[in-house]
Design goal:
The chain has two domains: 86 residues, no CATH class; 165 residues, no CATH class. The protein has ten helices and eleven strands. The longest helix is centred in the N-terminal third of the chain and has 26 residues. The radius of gyration is 25 Å and the shape is flat.
């Protein structure tokens, strides 16, 4: 019986670890996904403890003890979950939510709106950019069978040009497994000229290899890599693929904290991850503002 309990405990812990590996929640009670994940662990732990206690005493109802331990833990978890969602709702936090808007000041349209060069007026939206990028990738049949155009980010300015940019992503597990070095580039579509579409496959005279992607698996999965790089307890959202002015590709991920229990997130900074090497660096909102002003 002891061997069976040990095996059952190991399997339960393994399943719980697998849940984390697949789900990748924030390991913090300050975030809803983290609270749910930790709560599941507490309920599971209570059931295992009840099992060990019940089987060590032949005079008690084994299933009754297990049900009592796990049932109490489950009820407490649900009460805390619903209570937290209720207390953190706008019903009790209207002032906090209003203050998120920040200071409001009036501006003059004539004085504050700067005229722009008519050649830089955006005429391409994301839907058109996706079609143009797919057409560009389709020109290389071999490459198109292995990879696909990923999600475009919102317009960004690189060297004075407004562009859309998207990484090449894998077409599935087997395509990733046969090419773990990374996808071979990204697509740039001009926001001002629909005829300006580029498939960029080299940077700094070297072949581009985008190793860390949302379509990659195991340790190369982008979110899993960032989590394992020291951001397990940090709120992560808005994964954006961006370029610096030299054309080097990065992932820019917003970090945040909740201002009312599990609601009303406030940005705290960004994690910048090199899409090729995987090197990650966090920058606070203050550092971002200073960089923009410079």
């Amino acid at each position: 019986m002891t061997a069976l309990k040990s095996l059952g405990t190991i399997v339960s812990i393994g399943v719980y670890a697998l849940l984390y590996y697949v789900w990748l929640p924030t390991i913090s009670l300050a975030y809803l996904d983290g609270f749910i994940f930790i709560g599941i662990g507490v309920v599971l732990g209570a059931a295992i403890i009840g099992w060990w206690i019940a089987t060590s005493n032949k005079n008690v109802d084994e299933y009754g003890i297990i049900g009592t331990f796990s049932g109490v833990a489950c009820v407490v978890f649900i009460i805390l979950l619903l209570g937290g969602l209720f207390i953190g709702s706008s019903l009790f936090n209207a002032t906090t939510m209003y203050n998120q808007i920040g200071g409001i000041s009036e501006k003059s349209f004539e004085n504050d709106v700067v005229e722009i060069d008519t050649s830089q007026i955006p005429v391409v939206d994301i839907a058109l950019a996706e079609k143009l990028a797919d057409k560009k990738l389709g020109e290389d049949i071999a490459l198109g069978s292995q990879m696909k155009v990923g999600k475009f980010t919102n317009k960004q300015q690189v060297n004075g040009k407004l562009i859309y940019v998207a990484p090449l992503e894998y077409r599935g597990f087997f395509k990733w497994n046969s090419n773990k070095r990374g996808t071979t580039g990204y697509v740039v579509v001009s926001a001002t000229n629909p005829n300006d579409v580029q498939l960029v496959q080299r940077y700094d005279d070297k072949e581009i290899r985008l190793k860390y992607l949302g379509s990659a698996y195991f340790g190369n999965d982008l979110k899993r890599h960032i989590r394992s790089s020291g951001y397990r307890s940090v709120g992560l959202t808005e994964y954006s693929f961006e370029l610096d002015d030299t054309g080097k590709p990065y992932w820019v991920v917003t970090t945040y904290e909740n201002s009312t229990l599990w609601g009303n997130p406030e940005a705290t900074g960004v994690v910048v991850c090199d899409a090729q090497s995987g090197a990650c660096q966090w920058y606070s909102m203050m550092e971002i503002v200073i960089t923009i002003l410079e």
